[in-house]
Known about the structure:
Elements: H1 9-22, H2 29-45, H3 50-72, E1 95-101, E2 104-109
Antiparallel strand pairs: 1-2
Amino acid sequence: MSPPERKAPEEQFEDAWKRWAQSPPRQSPADAAARVRAMIEQRKRRRQPPWLFAAAAALVATIALTVHWARLSPPTVAPQPPAGIQAAPQLGEGQVLMWIDDKTPLYMTFQPPEGQPANGGKQ
């Protein structure tokens, strides 16, 4: 007796496919059609209300617009002091420092009119 021949996996698959295709169906066509019909009817009964799809679409549109708007708007960044300045100088009472540009400081001194205290007479 000779050993059985080993077939390639493709041939084994083809043989199994042919055996399956030649086997009789598990269900008659009428039973299969009735089962499909019953499944369709069951799905119709479970159908969601029409406003649910509109609400979901509105939610998706709102999220998309919010993300789009957030990506287009520039980020809010605190203004940085001019590059050459490391620390603000100590200013006396009634003095203000404004930078006109990176290299031009504007020092202003405000003094009360003659005879009035610097804090406006309040203590």
